[in-house]
Automatic annotation (TrEMBL):
InterPro entries assigned: Rce1/LyrA-like_dom
Keyword Membrane carried by entry: yes
A Pfam family matched in the record: Rce1-like
GO MF annotations in UniProt: hydrolase activity
Lineage: Bacteria, Bacillati, Actinomycetota, Actinomycetes, Micromonosporales
Biased composition (Low complexity): 244-270
Organism: Plantactinospora solaniradicis
Protein's name in the database: CPBP family intramembrane glutamic endopeptidase
Length: 300
């Protein structure tokens, strides 16, 4: 009986790793087509969100299955325990949350003033663009925060150290590498960002010995990325006064789900002679077209 359970455990671990590797290969190979579908096909983003939620929880089901089959793994070995880092874990988690929040607000502010981020251009198609998609994006964030931490941090590190007796540093680096590779669909620049935040998630988990803080930090990171930071920057609009010939720049652009916003900086109300006459139309960032200085959301 014990040998059967042990064999089952190894088969479950091998199946999970194989599934993750297949996901990595497909994500990297089909990235361009995948992002084009998100932009071009109505409802594609909703389908992506739903498929992600379903597939993530299916993968997460391996965690209790492996824990049940193995006599060498406990819930605590897989990270399901209260944080025990003597306060340093809470301090680190709070610092990471502060960095995420401030960074998100700064990125939002700069993009609304027309600044561009090359890494954002590569993932902009993933950002929700209406109320329905934003509601699903919240579920995506919660799902990713729980399931990815349970699999990549809790399960893989626990199995590697407790079941296969590998060095903690080696297992932590391997789980981080697989976590980064699983986000290959975000492109090279996106994967650099994933490496940074994934390292922070791993540090929080290893310091606390618990998934709880890592889940909270991960969830908040995804909420900021999907709901706080706009998909595309605001592009300045130039207007010219009919009387003075002076030019005024205003902002027009799109935020995820907010549509095109056009504004004017010249509000000389009641003076028809000084009413600004548009020189150029408001230029809003379009998902499938590269803006000046912005790389297209997908290559080719």
């Amino acid at each position: 009986m014990n040998q059967a359970l042990e064999l089952t455990t190894h088969l479950l671990v091998a199946t999970l790793l194989a599934a993750k590797l297949v996901d990595v290969v497909l994500g990297a190979k089909l990235r361009s087509r995948f992002l084009q579908q998100l932009v071009a096909e109505p409802g594609a983003r909703v389908r992506f969100y739903r498929n992600f939620i379903l597939s993530s929880w299916i993968m997460a089901a391996f965690v209790p299955a492996i824990a049940f089959a193995s006599a060498d793994l406990s819930a605590a070995d897989l990270g399901w325990a209260w944080p025990g880092g003597d306060g340093l874990d809470y301090l680190l988690a709070s610092y990471v949350l502060l960095v995420i929040g401030v960074g998100g607000l700064r990125a939002r502010s700069r993009m609304r003033r027309g600044h561009t981020f090359a890494a954002r251009a590569g993932t902009a198609a993933l950002v929700p663009q209406n109320a329905r998609e934003r509601r699903l994006a919240i579920l995506v964030s919660v799902t990713a925060g729980i399931t990815e931490e349970a699999v990549f941090r809790g399960l893989l590190i626990g199995v590697g150290t407790q079941l296969y007796h590998l060095p903690l540093a080696l297992v932590a680096l391997a789980s981080l590498a697989l976590f980064v590779a699983a986000h290959a669909y975000q492109g090279r620049r996106g994967m650099l960002g994933i490496t940074l935040v994934g390292s922070l998630f791993t540090a929080v988990y290893l310091l606390s010995g618990s998934l709880l803080l890592a889940i909270v930090v991960h969830l908040c990171q995804d909420l900021v990325a999907l709901l706080l930071v706009p998909a595309y920057p605001t592009v300045p609009q130039t207007t010219i006064s009919a009387r003075t010939g002076t030019e005024t720049e205003t902002g027009a652009g799109t935020e995820a789900g907010a549509g095109t916003e056009a504004g004017t900086a010249d509000e000389a109300a009641g003076n028809a002679q000084d009413a600004p006459v548009p020189k150029t139309d408001a230029v809003a960032a379009q998902p499938a077209t590269a803006l000046p200085g912005v790389r297209a959301p997908f290559p080719g």
